[in-house]
Specification:
about 475 residues
Length: about 475
C-alpha cells in the first residue's frame, strides 16, 4: 500500500531489504492473494520474476513503471549503506542484528521500538527526525525485547520498572556502543537504543558551525587557565559533540584532563574519562569532590543537573581549574539566570564564568532540489515576524539525493556570551534583561544566526520556526 506519492507502508517495505531493492530494481507496493506486487523498471520481467520467487520465497507479481518513477520510490523508501560493508559487523542474519546494521549504516542516532494494541513499530531518528522503518508482529515483539535485554545485561523478568543498559559492538576497526533504555507502557515495554560512536577523530571545532568571529570568542574563553564554560541547549542539540571537540583541542601532554559522563559517548586517548554509576553511589557530587584531589587542569562535567553539582563546579573553577559542562536552558543569558535560580550566588557566577554558549541543530536544505520562492506574508506561521529585508526564501522539495525529504545533513548554530566587566556588573546586580547590552556589543543571537541561514538559503523558515518562536 502506497501511503502517499512516494511512501509505502513499513510492513510492506520490510518485505525486501534495501540491498535487494536496489539490486533488482524493485519496490513492493501491495500484497495480494496472488503474491507480492512490485514495481520495476527492469524489462526482463519473466526471468526476474522467477529469480525473485526463489530469493524471497513467495509468489511475486511485477508491474512495469518508468525508470524515473521507480528511482523516486527507491530513494524515498530505502537508503543505500555506503558507510558500512555487508561483512563489517559479524552478525547472524536475524531481524534484530540486521536492524542494528542498517541503522548504523544509515547514520541513525536512535532506534525506537514501540508496542501498541495491534502492532509494534520501529522508528529510526535520522537528521533529528523520527522515520518509521519497520512493523513487528505482536507475537514476535517479546522475543526481540528479551534478546535486546540479554545483550544489554538487563533483567528480562523485570517488566514493571525502567531499566538502562549498554551493548558494545565491533564494526571492523570501529567500536561503538548502543545505550539501551526500557520503559513500561500500556501495551508492553518501549525500548530506545541510542547509537554511540566511540570514534572522535573526525570531530573538530573548525567544522562544527562556528563563524570565524564566534570561534575567536570561544577560544579566548578556552585560553584562560581557570573558570567555567557552559554550553546550553535542549536534548539533541549537539552540546556533547561541541564538548568533545573542545576537549580534543585542549588535549596535550601538559594537561591533566578528567571527565565525568553519563554515558561516555566518545573515547579520547590522553583523557581520563569516568562513567557515572549512581546505583553504586558514583554520582556527580561525590566524584567531583574526588576529582579535586586528582590534580586536574581541566574538568569536564557531562551536565549540571542540580545545585550540588553547580556549587562544586564553581568551587573547582575558583581553585584554578578550567571547567566545561552543559546545562538545559534556552539561551546563553538563560544559563546565568538558571544558575541564580539554583541558588548559586551571583557574585560567584560573575567571577568564575568565562563564556556562556547556547546552541541548536538545524537541518540543511538539500542543495540539489531546494527551490527559491518570493516571501508572501500570508504563508508565514502565525505570529512570526521576519525582517523586511528578507524578500525571498528557499523551500524543501525532495529528490533522489535527499531521499525525498528535502533536507540533507545538519548544521549547528551558536550564541556566545563572553564575560566582560559590564556583564559581570549586570550579573552581580541580578539584572534580568540585557537586550540593550547584546545590541550594543553586536552579539549574534540564536535568532540572528537562524535568520541568516534562512536568508542565505541554507535552511527553511519551517525548520527554524521552533527556534524563532522561542524569542517572540
Amino acid at each position: 500500500m502506497i501511503l502517499n506519492e512516494t511512501q509505502i507502508a513499513p510492513a510492506l517495505r520490510q518485505r525486501i531489504s534495501a540491498e535487494q531493492a536496489f539490486h533488482y530494481r524493485i519496490v513492493p507496493i501491495d500484497h495480494t492473494d496472488k503474491g507480492l506486487l512490485c514495481k520495476t523498471d527492469n524489462t526482463a520481467l519473466e526471468s526476474l520474476m522467477s529469480e525473485l520467487e526463489i530469493v524471497l520465497d513467495t509468489p511475486v507479481l511485477l508491474e512495469p513503471c518508468a525508470e524515473e518513477e521507480l528511482q523516486k520510490l527507491l530513494t524515498a523508501n530505502y537508503r543505500q549503506q555506503d558507510t558500512l560493508r555487508k561483512d563489517d559487523l559479524h552478525y547472524s542474519t536475524d531481524f534484530l542484528e540486521q536492524l542494528l546494521t542498517n541503522a548504523k549504516g544509515m547514520g541513525s542516532s536512535d532506534i525506537h521500538f514501540e508496542p501498541y494494541e495491534k502492532r509494534c513499530r520501529v522508528r529510526f531518528r535520522l537528521d533529528g527526525k523520527l522515520i518509521e522503518q519497520h512493523s513487528i508482529a505482536l507475537e514476535e515483539y517479546p522475543t526481540i525485547v528479551n534478546k535486546i535485554k540479554i545483550k544489554a545485561d538487563l533483567d528480562i523478568s523485570e517488566k514493571r520498572l525502567p531499566q538502562d543498559g549498554r551493548i558494545t559492538l565491533q564494526a571492523g576497526t570501529d567500536e561503538f556502543d548502543i545505550r539501551v533504555s526500557s520503559l513500561p507502557t500500556l501495551h508492553g515495554e518501549k525500548l530506545v537504543l541510542r547509537i554511540l560512536s566511540k570514534d572522535a577523530t573526525l570531530i573538530d571545532l573548525d567544522g562544527l558551525g562556528f563563524s570565524e568571529d564566534e570561534l575567536v570568542l570561544y577560544r579566548e574563553g578556552l585560553r584562560r587557565p581557570s573558570g567555567i564554560i557552559l554550553i546550553s541547549g535542549p536534548t539533541g542539540s549537539g552540546k556533547t559533540t561541541t564538548l568533545y571537540a573542545t576537549l580534543k583541542e585542549l588535549n596535550t601532554a601538559e594537561e591533566n584532563i578528567l571527565t565525568l559522563e553519563d554515558p561516555i559517548e566518545y573515547t579520547l586517548e590522553g583523557i581520563n574519562q569516568v562513567q557515572l554509576k549512581e546505583s553504586i553511589g558514583l554520582d556527580f557530587a561525590r566524584t567531583l569532590k574526588t576529582f579535586l584531589r586528582q590534580d586536574p587542569n581541566i574538568i569536564m562535567i557531562g551536565e549540571i543537573r542540580d545545585v550540588d553539582t553547580a556549587n562544586i563546579a564553581i568551587r573547582a573553577a575558583q581553585t584554578g581549574h578550567l571547567v566545561l559542562s552543559t546545562i538545559h536552558t534556552n539561551s546563553a543569558w538563560g544559563t546565568i539566570s538558571r544558575l541564580i535560580d539554583m541558588g548559586v550566588p551571583s557574585f560567584l557566577i560573575a567571577s568564575t564564568l568565562n563564556s556562556s554558549i547556547a546552541q541548536r541543530l538545524v537541518r540543511k536544505l538539500c542543495p540539489h532540489c531546494k527551490r527559491e520562492n518570493v516571501l508572501e506574508p500570508g504563508e508565514l506561521p502565525l505570529g512570526l515576524n521576519l525582517p523586511r529585508t528578507l524578500k525571498t526564501h528557499f523551500k524543501a522539495v525532495g529528490c533522489n539525493a535527499c531521499h525525498h525529504t528535502g533536507y540533507s545533513g545538519r548544521k549547528a548554530i551558536y550564541e556566545i556570551l563572553p564575560m566582560t566587566k559590564a556583564l559581570m556588573g549586570a550579573i552581580k546586580n541580578n539584572q534580568l534583561h540585557i537586550d540593550d547590552y547584546i545590541k550594543e556589543r553586536g552579539i549574534r543571537t540564536l535568532r540572528t544566526n537562524a535568520l541568516h541561514l534562512v536568508a542565505t538559503g541554507v535552511t527553511s523558515i519551517e525548520e527554524v520556526y521552533p527556534l524563532l518562536s522561542d524569542t517572540l
